[in-house]
Specification:
single chain, 2 domains, 5 helices, AzlD domain-containing protein, transmembrane
Length: 103
Amino acid sequence: MITLTILAMSLIVFGSRYIFIEPALPLKLNKSVKRLLSYSAPAVLTAILTPIVFLPEGELSLSWTNPYLLGAIATALVVAKSKNVLLAVFIGTLVFGVARYLL
């Protein structure tokens, strides 16, 4: 039963992705829908990261002893300044690691 569920979900996900990727299919999205979909990745990432950064122990932690918060702030600052995502991830991870080690 579990295998059947996994296969069914795989087909659903593949089908929903294939419709938008295959250029031979006549499905075209208008500009409003494309603009709306451009916000989906940041929205999903925000929904995943917000509890990790602000609730690391299960309760709100906005102090400077929160390594997750320090890493997130460092990453945001590097992205805002340099626009280099790889550098931002490296610096954010480094700040997180050092903060976790020292704190």
